[in-house]
Amino acid sequence: MRRTSWTTTILAAICGTAAAAEDAPPPATTATALGPVVVTATKRDQDIDRVAGLVGVISPEDFSSRGFTRVDAIDRILPDLTIDQRSSRVYSNVTIRGQSSVDFYNPTVQLLVDGLPQDQALFTQAVPLGLEQVEVLYGPQGTLYGRGAVGGVISVITRKPDGTPSLEATAGLSGRGRDAAVLAGAAMIPDMLFADIMLRGEYIQGDLKELSTGRTQGDGDDAGGRLRLRHAPAGSPLDLMISLARDQLTSDEEYFSPRSSMSMRGVLPVSSHYTLDTTSLGLTGSYDLDGATLTLLTGFQDRDLDRTIFGSRTPEWQRTFSQELRIASSGDRTRAIDYVAGLYHQDLDFRREVVGTGLVSSQNIASWAVFGDATWHATPMIDVSAGLRFDHERVEADNRMGSAAYANAASFSALSPRFGISFVPVDDLTLYGLYSTGFKAGGFTRAVTPGNIASDYAYDPQTSHNFEIGARSRLFDDRLELAVAAYFIMTDDYQLSVGPVQGQYVQNAGEVHSKGLDLRVTAQPTEDLRLTAGIGLNDTWFAAYRDSAGGNRDLTGNTVPYAPRFTANLGADYLVDLAEGGLLIPHAGLTLVGKTWFDEANTVSQSAYALVDFGLAWQFTDAATLDLFVDNLTDRTYAVYGFDAGAPFGDLYQLGDGRTVGGRLHVRF
């Protein structure tokens, strides 16, 4: 595995910055009240307490204080949500409210960064410096987001460059590797043109042991950067920003452990490695119409994956172009109706090879949509909202091996309505009811193999209907926040990867039902103590199973793969004022995950487990913090992915991270 030296340079720069930061004024104490939260993932600014639906919000401190650096760590902070790799981080499984991404290439959750949709291989990308907050919309979001939002939406929001000279840097060192990042911003032309640049990198030290040789496996290198230019003249209604990002991840993490070797993290000695190269371009623009905002979002991502798994090389390429034009009201509740409406288009080209067989499979997926959503402020206490989206998608598939060629095409359309009502009977209490829908288009299996190239593995669209009631409340002078939601989701023509793991293909597996309860509590009883708790209870099962793999199995009543029945997150932190200035902040976190099945037959599983995290943050100036942390304190061994590999191996598993001890220095001006 290649080693890089970028950390030495960036670490030196950060240490110099930290020394300069020591002259900054001492930190202010934390206020006792929990402040209001505005969310934007609904495509217009809304007070979180007026949204008809459950929204989770994560701050930058929630990541940094726990030593987390990637988006997939949000399931250690919020419940009823899991993000686990399936074979590798490139193929992540995202599950929200039991809606799992059992198709590698068509996840049930959309990931957005500053409003731009991300390639499905990037669900574990690094959390960028300059993070403002992460918002998670729970449940089907088809009206505003269309395909790929059956389970929900994860929206990562960063601070735009505004011309203020700024420097933010972080460096981490742990038993699992090292990482560093720097973000610098300044005005190129005062009051007109602003820029920022971010450089980051990470070396991951593997902790897997080959069973026959004892060699360490699981190493990785991840390096990237981003440049943004923003044209926002003072006093002008126009705001334009272009961005260019590049990232390369090289890893040999795709190793698998027999059950008997899991405790020693022993893996089979089968060659597995990959390189993921991603280039992202973005153009975002807005124009203030005095009461409404016109927004343009244009994105392009070029993703190359050169992968060898179990000795088989299967490189693939994906190019995605997306564009959205929308208009949204200001959301300040000065009018009777607030609204958002827009047009959306996406064009996706995909190509995959199986080296040594001559097999080449390719697809083009073109999508168009028109959507609208409005909220009527019927009274100061009652909001009524309704929305509708029309999606149309065409898929063209072309599979070739030698002189044999197989082509197919299909078109799909869907209407995705939404209706919600919120009621504020008294101050600081909101009750709501919601009906929402989600849509995943049909298509053709992308992971074509020599064994199924001649088969017409087409599948129909999947649709979900969500019925939800909930409440949010602020009590004791905003020192306590409560949110609770109960839901029932019916999914028709559930898309499932079936067949042997060496040649799985997507088919419709019948009807799936999901019911559950979400409870969130945030308390700040004093200015020094903050407590958080979240519990997700979920039951997702095959209500009417259809065996599309050619057998006669009836799995009706079985639990859907990757949908644990119980998840919970608990956290606490306490501020200690130091006599000489600064703060000490000890903190603790607990993550609970219920039993998880990895297959629809419910034969391969991971039992329930708990992960305990502890840390200590030393905020020695307003501008600098040193975090010491230990994640998975008990060194719990657990699987995030498993499958039956057949004789002679039996069940094989991919393991979650073991105990990680480290520290992180973060400075910001």
Residue runs with pLDDT of under 50 for 5 or more positions: 1-32
Share in β-strands: over 45%
What class, by secondary structure content?
A: mainly beta
Shape by Cα distribution? globular
What distance lies between the first and last C-alpha atoms, to the nearest angstrom?
36 Å
**For the CA atoms, what is the radius of gyration?**
24 Å
Name the CATH superfamily classification. Answer: TonB-dependent receptor, beta-barrel domain
Number of strands: 46
Percent range of helical residues:
under 10%
| Averaged pLDDT | 89
- Domain module count: 1
The CATH topology name reads Maltoporin, Chain A
**Total of DSSP H or I helical runs spanning 4+ residues:** 3
Produce a short descriptive summary.
It is built from three helices and 46 strands.
Blueprint (SSEs and pairs):
Elements: H1 6-21, E1 38-39, E2 46-47, E3 55-58, H2 60-64, E4 81-86, E5 88-96, E6 99-100, E7 109-113, E8 116-117, E9 131-138, H3 142-145, E10 152-158, E11 166-174, E12 177-189, E13 193-204, E14 208-210, E15 216-217, E16 220-231, E17 238-251, E18 257-258, E19 266-267, E20 273-288, E21 292-309, E22 312-313, E23 316-329, E24 337-354, E25 359-377, E26 382-401, E27 404-423, E28 429-440, E29 443-444, E30 458-459, E31 462-475, E32 480-492, E33 495-498, E34 505-508, E35 510-523, E36 529-545, E37 566-574, E38 576-577, E39 583-593, E40 596-597, E41 605-606, E42 609-621, E43 624-631, E44 639-644, E45 651-655, E46 660-668
Parallel strand pairs: 7-10, 14-19
Antiparallel strand pairs: 1-2, 3-9, 4-5, 5-6, 7-8, 9-10, 11-12, 11-46, 12-13, 13-16, 14-15, 16-17, 17-20, 18-45, 20-21, 21-22, 21-23, 23-24, 24-25, 25-26, 26-27, 27-28, 28-31, 29-30, 31-32, 32-35, 33-34, 35-36, 36-37, 37-39, 38-39, 39-42, 40-41, 42-43, 43-46, 44-45
